[in-house]
Amino acid sequence: MPPRTRPKTSSASTTILSGAAISRLIRWYGKHHRDLPWRRTHDPYAIWVSEILLQQTQVQTVKPYFIRFLERFPTVGDLAAAPLDDVLKVWEGCGYYARARNLHRAARIVVSECGGRLPNRAAELQKLPGIGRSTAAAIASIAHDEPAAVLDGNVERVLARVLCEKRVLSESIVRRRLLKSADAIMQAAIGRKLSPGILNQAFMELGATVCLPKRTDCHRCPLRIECRARAKLADVTVLPRKAKARANPHYDIGAAIIYRNGRILITQRPPDGLLGGLWEFPGGKQQAGESLKECVEREIREELAIEIEVKELLARVKHAYSHFKITLHAFECRHRSGRIKKIGVADFRW
Length: 350
What we know:
Nucleoside Triphosphate Pyrophosphohydrolase; 13 helices; 2 domains; disordered N terminus; alpha+beta; five-stranded mixed β-sheet; single chain; Endonuclease III, domain 1; about 40% helix
């Protein structure tokens, strides 16, 4: 007898999750998802704002910012018409201010080039500042049910464990494999007439509440039967593997509290770069071989073209950013001579 050949399979049948498992995940989401304010709307603008806020910020922190932001800027037109300073003020304390600047820039593009309507397709959304692949997929799928698979940090972790992916997560081959799996799952869901937006939210919710980085609640997981890491490993939290983190560098920063006629000088950072557009006491990074007082004098001369007298140390503050740490040394200073020129700053106020 001639050898039997295997029948060709569709992308839906080769997915890492069966249709029954995907349906189970969506049912789990329907019963156990958190009641979050951005889940009570289908307004693409509100969903966009929530997705930008949720980048690198925890849900509990985002809640009040989301409500405040929409109260102050209820439509994309309101956001586009607002001065950037107003947007940054509402964002104040949420961190990663480039998100706010990009949101504002994108709103102005939507108003000027898209008739005030946010694009409804992920590919078009990605052309806007601050919107990457996963954010675009989330907005398009939740607001418009486009079958675009999200692959954010939560989804990556879930899929890496379901697949028992033991290679380092940042490797390009791993990213491609996870994305291919996410796309296959999405196509399988479409084949069962399941909502792309609900599927994406279900995966993100599972990673945010059950399949956590340092602990898991496997008995509650709707994918526990399919999870290869659970079947093969004593501790699933060893996955996904991440590249060894480098030690964050530390910098000493000298800041000048400059008094003149009963007023204090503040300066605005250039619009691009870290903390762009925000106001601060002027100063900068200490260079090798100079004292902190010399650092402050030099920075003020380079940024503002004025001479100051650096007096006593007023405060020393330690702060950590995502990729470096600083110790800020704030000195009382007196304006001695010179007229301020905006060399290294966007603006200044006494």
